[in-house]
Design brief:
Length: 160
């Protein structure tokens, strides 16, 4: 009887091992579904650590995303300020970068910007002039979204 119990226990352990392997595989495949185009992510490493960014991309030897984010957030605005001061304080400084998935933390928020579609591609990173042009387009799209008053969370810096 003890041999029968031991063999049943070994079979059960083998089943558990197989189940755990499939569970981790399913988790890794479902984890990549979070990083769809338009998903807001927080960068965890490097120069832009703690900054919010909008994801989307393909083509490098590592899993990565083309990211457009905010390097310098707009300052606070009050009603007392003049129109010129309000426009100065609502400026955004964007950045464009290719970032490894390991250095991104996806959030539950999405940000659909029509002005960004087709602006950032792998070709934009080949020449400096294309990169600067893409940054200008990103800046324009982000400032339009900020002045419209939508997605306020995206335009506030993280407090940590």
């Amino acid at each position: 009887m003890t041999n029968h119990i031991l063999s049943a226990h070994q079979e059960f352990n083998e089943l558990n091992i197989d189940k755990s392997i499939t569970a981790t595989i399913n988790l890794t495949t479902s984890a990549m579904k979070f990083l769809k185009v338009g998903r807001v992510a927080i960068i965890t490493r490097g120069r832009y650590a703690g900054k919010k960014a909008n994801t989307g991309s393909k083509s490098h030897p590592f899993p990565h995303a083309l990211v457009a984010g905010i390097e310098r957030y707009p300052s606070t605005i009050t009603r007392r300020m003049s129109k010129t001061r309000q426009t100065k304080r609502s400026k955004v400084k964007p950045f464009i970068k290719i970032i490894n998935y390991n250095h991104l933390m996806p959030t539950r928020y999405t940000l659909e910007l029509e002005g960004l579609k087709g602006v950032i591609t792998n070709d934009t990173f080949k020449e400096v002039s294309q990169r600067e042009e893409a940054k200008k387009n990103v800046k324009k799209a982000l400032e339009e979204r900020y002045t419209s008053g939508k997605n306020r969370w995206f335009f506030t810096p993280l407090r940590f």
